[in-house]
Amino acid sequence: MPDLNDGDTFEMQGSGSKPYILKNTGGVYSCSCPAWRNQSLAIEKRTCKHLRKLRGDAAEEARIGSDLPQRAQPAKDKEGSAPPLLLAEAWDFVTDPAGWWLSEKLDGVRAYWDGKQFLSRLGNRFHAPDWFVQGLPSAPLDGELWLGRKRFQRAVSIVRRQDKSEHWKEIKYLVFDAPGLDKPFEARSDFIQECLRSGVAPFALPHEHQACRGIDHLKHELARLEALGGEGLMLRKPGSRYESGRSTTLLKVKTFHDAEARVLKHLEGAGKHKGRLGALFVELPDGTTFSVGTGFSDKERAQPPPLGRTITFRYQELSEAGVPRFPSYVGVRADVGQDSAPVEQGQKRRPSAVKPQPSRAGLQARPDGPGEPSHKNPTSRGELDMKDTTPPAAAPRRFEFVQGKSSKFWEIARAGCEVTVRFGRIGTNGQTQTKTFADEQKAQAHVDKLIEEKTGKGYGEAETR
Question: Which of 49, 105, 237, 252 is catalytic?
Answer without folding.
Answer: 105
